[in-house]
């Protein structure tokens, strides 16, 4: 009896070169290959947004749907953290978040940033006031204010962006959870920056703002640009990207002015 065995090396190498999924989550790599083969048209062009949607389980009102976004491995979170602060030619959503983004990383990035602002903001106030000569007291309002601001940025801004893409009938309509994941990871760069803001030097704090916004803002812009680049109104396309970067800058500016510079008054 003749047994012919099929060689799967070409299939595996194709999936690895696609770069559509950073990190490993058990056997979910199979989902990338099956999604691409089932969704790709005859011309070979594959829409990543369709693959992202087709590989997600359950519906919005099921526990299973949300559970999958917290099933993530450490190496994948680290890869997404690093690539959120280091701009490359790759698209962050398509190459590092799809087909399954996670909410575990963005949640802990946001929580860590909230407490970093509370701790380092109070520490900066203590240093600048020379210990307040025994009269210093911690300002816990920083935690509540920072949590409100970060929640609005990570939840509301992606919602507005998703609404814009839907309204403009974007050819690449990223799911809302992808945008939340993108914005959540984009905050990672501000965690070390809040520590460096302890140094009370005006130009140094401004340099940190431009550096952090330049790095993570570039990642945001490159991730969103493919969704708006084919808009018939180029003013909308460029205006969207400019607004994304400006809002990112205003967030960093608010951190500096409200939580660190306001203690001078």
Automatic annotation (TrEMBL):
<feature type="transmembrane region" description="Helical">
    <location>
        <begin position="177"/>
        <end position="198"/>
    </location>
</feature>
<feature type="domain" description="Yip1">
    <location>
        <begin position="100"/>
        <end position="253"/>
    </location>
</feature>
<keyword id="KW-0812">Transmembrane</keyword>
<dbReference type="InterPro" id="IPR039765">
    <property type="entry name" value="Yip5/YIPF1/YIPF2"/>
</dbReference>
<feature type="compositionally biased region" description="Low complexity">
    <location>
        <begin position="33"/>
        <end position="44"/>
    </location>
</feature>
<keyword id="KW-1133">Transmembrane helix</keyword>
<dbReference type="Pfam" id="PF04893">
    <property type="entry name" value="Yip1"/>
</dbReference>
<feature type="transmembrane region" description="Helical">
    <location>
        <begin position="204"/>
        <end position="225"/>
    </location>
</feature>
<dbReference type="GO" id="GO:0016192">
    <property type="term" value="P:vesicle-mediated transport"/>
</dbReference>
<dbReference type="InterPro" id="IPR006977">
    <property type="entry name" value="Yip1_dom"/>
</dbReference>
<keyword id="KW-0472">Membrane</keyword>
<feature type="transmembrane region" description="Helical">
    <location>
        <begin position="237"/>
        <end position="259"/>
    </location>
</feature>
<feature type="transmembrane region" description="Helical">
    <location>
        <begin position="147"/>
        <end position="165"/>
    </location>
</feature>
<feature type="region of interest" description="Disordered">
    <location>
        <begin position="32"/>
        <end position="53"/>
    </location>
</feature>
<protein>
    <recommendedName>
        <fullName>Protein YIPF</fullName>
    </recommendedName>
</protein>
<feature type="transmembrane region" description="Helical">
    <location>
        <begin position="107"/>
        <end position="127"/>
    </location>
</feature>
<comment type="similarity">
    <text>Belongs to the YIP1 family.</text>
</comment>
<dbReference type="GO" id="GO:0031267">
    <property type="term" value="F:small GTPase binding"/>
</dbReference>
<dbReference type="GO" id="GO:0000139">
    <property type="term" value="C:Golgi membrane"/>
</dbReference>
